[in-house]
Amino acid sequence: VAIAEEIEDPANIYPYDLVPESPDHDFRSWSPPGGDRYTEYKDGDDPYVITPSIIAKSDDVARTRREHVKNAMKHAWGGYKKYAFGHDEVAPLNKSYKDGWGGMGTTLVDSLDTLWLMDMKEEFWEARDWVRDHLKSDIHHTVSTFETTIRSLGGLLAAYDWSGDKTFYDKALDLGERLFHAFDNNVLPSSSVNLHTGAAVSRGSTNIAEAGTLQVEFRFLAEVTGQKKFKEKSERAFEALRNLNPDNGLFPYLVSSGATSFRNAVVTFGAMGDSFYEYMLKLWLQGGKKETVYREMWDKSMNGIHDELLKQSNPHGLWYIAETNRGSINPKFDHLVCFMGGMYI
Questions:
Q1: Can you state the angle between helices 274-286 and 215-225, rounded to 10 degrees?
Q2: Whole-prediction pTM value?
Q3: pLDDT tens digits, 48-58
Q4: Measuring CA to CA, which residue among 57, 45, 59, 61 is closest to residue 6?
């Protein structure tokens, strides 16, 4: 976006209203205004001159909107606390709860860093007390390695990183040790593991998201505990995926547990593929931008997107990231691919 000094009335000045939201605005009255808006942006152009005053107005709008985002979090947390506190999920329609993730307070643990960042400290410390007094990882239940790592282990580690409270350190280490049994038998981690027995379940194959979306959490666990095994074994899995090395940087999503071959030819940035590419970039950032291998992997994959997967819809000409199967385009845009815009930013 072009940034210019203040000028009187340029022909290409930003044309849209930047009006702060009132504190009592009710977003329930909002209705979608329809498509065919902001079409001047669809080809990636920067059509307007952005002046310092426009930036200031945009910042003012964002500050008022963030209060409404926080209010939405208060509403969601209030419903969870009232009907499902300490359980995995709230069931809003019947005002009850579900424990489909092993009964480990998954929503509560996964929300800890959001509570802290939104300065909902009273709610954060109340949740900490539940973690301290009630959270148990020694359960005779087989859980998803991927989901439990990103939600529960990641939630505990993030809460520890923000607050420094040892409760989160202790619970994260206990859970991490149990999840780590997924790395016992194959180059790539098993898709699920029993948290009590350590028995890992392997299907003979896994997907690149499950195998390549554990490293940020286990590397940080290694950092805070000083136990290098968490870093080394999790990185070994990522290295095994890298060695498959498709020429275009686009990985078919199904791979053998030994990381010797791909088991299908479907390339997607949606379900079963998405977060593998995200973690390429995150690992580079986590390592202080010094581990160039991860950035090189990411750059190669992004070039692959632009060369092979970036398509325009018909009839409106909107850009999207397609899928391929054996090189043939499938003009499908999985909703999970929406994360790509944020990753590019």
A1: 30
A2: 0.93
A3: 988 899 999 99
A4: 57
